[in-house]
């Protein structure tokens, strides 16, 4: 009778990718039960995304011109995290430029925007449709457009046009949480193909279809009990690192 | 006419420690002009304090029993940062215990308290007056009791009793921002003598009287323009580090 349990114990469990329902339940638990604040979560996640960028594109290896990063922020929570990420990239001596076409009226996003503006991070008034201009001007794109809460079928302008442009760029894309425009479970075979994915809190099911080179999880802040409850089985975060590579 | 300027340029300027008026002005600028949120600032500072602890007392060098840390939190902002620090110490695999005798009614502090409670960090109901019990039970004390906003002459119970006890402990004390009970400019020669000081945002004048072994500044989030305006002249933060040793 102990057969199955014993065999389960023998092999180390693989990291688990959350369904949409599980991802929503986990966020609810963090916010409602643990009382994590939205500002606090966005700050931790945006910081961790910037740290993940430094792992793949270390600033010391880049010339001044190669440090240019285009951070594309959507109107919701994913965009707010993108703004925090841009600020930390600036602190880490990258040269971020933000494209944030549809600004959230939320005070959280407004405050993050002010922080970036006051730190002299440039904001683009439009995204060039000529993809070569983007390839030439920037070394990478941070995709903070749509998160797991967005329904891909319902993506509206300006997001659809931006995603059409990003599908054509040749410079690497770093996607925050999920690649924008992907279904949180099914992915999107016609969508963008990021080189780097930074899962926030925990990987979502669509990460199984990610074929880029680097997949990080930024979820060290998730309490042990919550990680266990959702059977995340993530590798340990080394030292004081806020991200871990899968 | 260019004499003084030229000679100023020749010698690298030393880090500057802020007066009380300057520290208040800088915090006002961060909050009112840059729109940094109090939750965001507390999260960044508490995280950086926990990272500073790992620099002096690396967890890998400690046995399970040596990882015990007593985090003493006061009723105001310094205590809120202590709660965040305790949470990150837990994540970094220390064994924090919190003493938080006068709880703030502020929602910020309440939420940080809930995060710690739900992560099973124990809260002490009283601090042993027998100092040997503290020396035996813990490896270090985090002093998050009073910050630069407190008037040392006006310190009330339970803070005065706690500080009298901490003056006698033999285990190292890590003070957040300023040693509790010190005047932000003049220090306090009869006060506690921390081994580690973690200045938050920028060092305050009393840090000139600090005679402990390790002084860190946790202020990488302070925008360049603000650092320049207050002539902080801090050494560069290495890599993605959020603290730098002075």
Automatic annotation (TrEMBL), chains A, B:
May accelerate cholesterol efflux from endothelial cells to high-density lipoprotein (HDL) and thereby regulates angiogenesis. May orchestrate hematopoietic stem and progenitor cell emergence from the hemogenic endothelium, a type of specialized endothelium manifesting hematopoietic potential. YJEFN3-mediated cholesterol efflux activates endothelial SREBF2, the master transcription factor for cholesterol biosynthesis, which in turn transactivates NOTCH and promotes hematopoietic stem and progenitor cell emergence. May play a role in spermiogenesis and oogenesis. GO terms for cellular component: mitochondrion. It comes from Sarcophilus harrisii (Tasmanian devil). It comes from the Eukaryota. InterPro entries: YjeF_N_dom, YjeF_N_dom_sf, YJEFN_prot_NAXE-like. This is YjeF N-terminal domain-containing protein 3. The lineage of its organism: Eukaryota, Metazoa, Chordata, Craniata, Vertebrata. Gene3D superfamilies: YjeF N-terminal domain (3.40.50.10260). SUPFAM superfamilies: YjeF N-terminal domain-like. GO terms for molecular function: NAD(P)HX epimerase activity. PANTHER family: NAD(P)H-HYDRATE EPIMERASE, YJEF N-TERMINAL DOMAIN-CONTAINING PROTEIN 3. Residues 23-234 form the YjeF N-terminal domain. Interacts with APOA1. Binds to HDL.
